[in-house]
User: Which sequence fits this backbone?
DNA sequence: CTCCTTATTGCAGTTACTTGCAATAGAGAA
DNA sequence: TTCTCTATTGCAAGTAACTGCAATAAGGAG
């Protein structure tokens, strides 16, 4: 998964946000580390390039990118949050609590549930990255 | 929602756990406060009766009751965790991020999704209290 | 009732993440 | 290029929740 910084930068600037070297570095790190990344891993990665870059900045940037739908966040049962570049097609995950295996689930698969929520309760689910925890075939 | 301490105590003792006054107090507090309760609220409540009762004990007891399926926990988007007595029939929630409205969703409603997870991926979802965040009819 | 094993507690620190505030620095306007 | 406004950063303190360890006490055995 890669990201087009030009395009993202233009969009953010257009919305009145600023594209700082810190934010670029942090987004690059999420991209390069790949998959589900912890804030700590991102912090360590950017630290190597710019040692003065602060932890708080990493967390704020990551949350900012979440708000802007550029990355998605998942809070794991162990309390840690993992981040991932939001691709062009939103998806969800089945995550094995034992071995960590990770199945990508299309938005499609949740649509029936979300439809029923809307029809029966008038409720619009607004979560674009849900992780369902459980056990995979091997770990059961 | 009420709880039968006798029955729960017997089950826990049978499994080799101990039924301490602290645990009883904490479970009573979850019951009396009702609905979705924060650990902080439980702590303040039990504090009034036994001031020496420690915060760590509250968190450990709450997690213990979760493991034992006596209460359920939900981590909200704001980072706080709310607890609720697990009734006889497991259920999930649609929670409005704007007004906090809370719709109870039967296990039934998620079964088709969980079935597909099992059939297509061999994956067994093991979450008995999921909260889907979004917006209710009025807040959209 | 007393003894004994070990689950649980209280305490104090740690972790993961957030936040207030003054200083810094994007980026549009002149 | 310089000026100006204010979004963002660095720092340090704050919060919710977790944890290691020695002391305590539940509860089964005798």
Assistant:
């Amino acid at each position: 998964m890669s990201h087009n910084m030009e395009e993202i930068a233009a969009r953010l600037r257009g919305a009145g946000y600023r594209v700082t070297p810190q934010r670029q570095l942090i987004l690059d790190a999420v991209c390069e580390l790949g998959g589900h990344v912890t804030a700590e891993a991102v912090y360590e990665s950017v630290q190597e390039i710019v040692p003065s870059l602060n932890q708080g900045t990493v967390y704020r940037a990551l949350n900012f990118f979440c708000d802007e739908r550029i990355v998605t966040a998942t809070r794991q049962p162990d309390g840690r949050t993992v981040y991932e570049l939001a691709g062009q097609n939103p998806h969800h995950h089945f995550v094995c609590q034992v071995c960590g295996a990770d199945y990508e689930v299309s938005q499609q698969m949740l649509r029936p549930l979300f439809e029923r929520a809307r029809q029966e309760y008038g409720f619009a689910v607004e979560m674009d990255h849900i992780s369902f925890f459980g056990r995979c075939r091997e770990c059961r």
Observations:
- The longest strand of chain A covers residues 91-96.
- The first helix of chain A runs from residue 5 to 14.
- The mean pLDDT of chain A is 93.
- Residues 54 and 82 of chain A are 19 Å apart (CA to CA).
